[in-house]
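Q: Entry one of two.
A:
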Amino acid sequence: MKIERLTTQFHTAKGVTSPVNDVSLEIPRGAIVGLVGESGCGKSMTAMSVLQLVRKPGKITAGRILLGGRDLLQASPREMRQIRGNEISMIFQEPMTALNPVYPVGRQVREAILLHQKVSRREAEDRVVEIFRECGIPEPEKRYHDYPHQLSGGLRQRVIIAMAMVCRPDLLIADEPTTALDVTIEAQILRLMKRLREEQGTSILIITHNMGVMAQMCDYVYVMYAGKVMEQAETFELFERTAHPYTQGLLRSIPRMDRPAERLYSIRGVVPNLLHLPEGCSFCARCERAAEACRTVPPELIEVAPGHKVRCHRCQEGGDGHGA
């Protein structure tokens, strides 16, 4: 999949905001790509835009979303219903809002199979039980008949993951897929996603704020802030030669086992209100290296090394750029 200059806007009584602002990213066949940033940076809205699930007053106003040579923004509502859950699946962030409270969870996952694939009900049920087992759900035959309220938060999250993976999609979008899970189940789910990539050639877009998951899972990483991509690079390159001050701040805030106990670093300030973005770089008010140009001139996304792009005046001018 390739996303080209995607913009999603919300027209409100207070003004127009762009939680996705001229975003371009590529997810090659069989690759795992990460989209990272703080809450409110536009990561989930990017995913919802791909699936065309943006609710009013939101609207996709520019760009292209290419899947297998097709522009999904030109697809009809009926075509998108066939694509969702079959060619593109998504692991949603909130399991309680993604599951219907009045139907057993197994039946909900079964319906995803029957909607997109020509199999018998019995075969669909067997596949649901198998994917439940693969996702670490204990007693899958019993859990098939349970309702969402009978499951813990972690089990509900695993049901959502099973629903997204059961049709073996071409692209899996995982929005904070392991948030409600303990570290043992998290490792199991991440292994399952890797296996899906290796056995089925599935492309995966992982949306998270967990830099550890990024380092473990991803081939390529995009760092997003205030609706824009601020830095992008292959995972090793990003961690070894971090360029943007925002990415450096994210990495510095991770606890380190090889350093003595100390107060954790945090990036000063908060994500800006999208209605009142700075005139120049959207990160300038929080940046420890901001210059006058950063406050007045919006930076462009420029390649500073092969495959490594940064949206930062200081990095582009050859300043004290690399290294966390």
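Q: Entry two of two.
A:
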Amino acid sequence: MIKRSVINILALMICTLLFVSCGIAQITVPESDAETSESATVIYQTVLDDPETSDTENDDLELSSGIWWGVGDSDDSYYLLDSDGSGIVISQSSGTESNFEYELDGDEILFRIDDSINTTPAQIEFINSDYLIIDYSNGDREEWTYLGELTFEDFTFYSSDELCLMARDYLRSENGSEPQYTNAYITESGLIAIHLYDIVDDHTSTCQWYTVDRFTAQGTDFFDEPVDLTTIL
């Protein structure tokens, strides 16, 4: 989780310097740069506390249609599965959407992404009907949690890249300044922490921190004051 101890120790001493520095910079970021943010490197761990193990054999369990939340080592994604073996996956960090086909055969699952002629084999382990682990052939692992029989029409979220752009616009609307850089991190509680900052004399000059919910884009700023990034949409 993003550490807040710096607020208690140094906030009163440095906040004026940080915000003045950011305001003075007034750097106009090129549109191509403004649309790009670095992916999260700290990922929310979705491991359940002692998940209840199903008595049903792995071969007898099926992937329920609807939306599954998959959490891996470098990103988390939402998978929409249809009963006909097709699906859509959307990355939380970038919002990138891909179509895929899947085939479940015992403890093995095959994925074919965007009509590729190649399939990605993986081992699947059902902990229960709503929670499973997928080990991919390239060494990656994802833990999937079933969210319900939903579609992306009634299940929406903001990607980290979208939230970075919203945070940049929100800060500009608040004090007229625009940071050079934005980074997004997923906290241990699943919230999105957005760091807005400049680089001044090879040092990081923080303009603002926003920590918001990925579904509402609402949360708090550096001083725990409430923010709603949707107000700039």
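A: Comment on entry two: The chain is about 20% helix and 35% strand. The CA atoms of residues 81 and 87 lie 5 Å apart.
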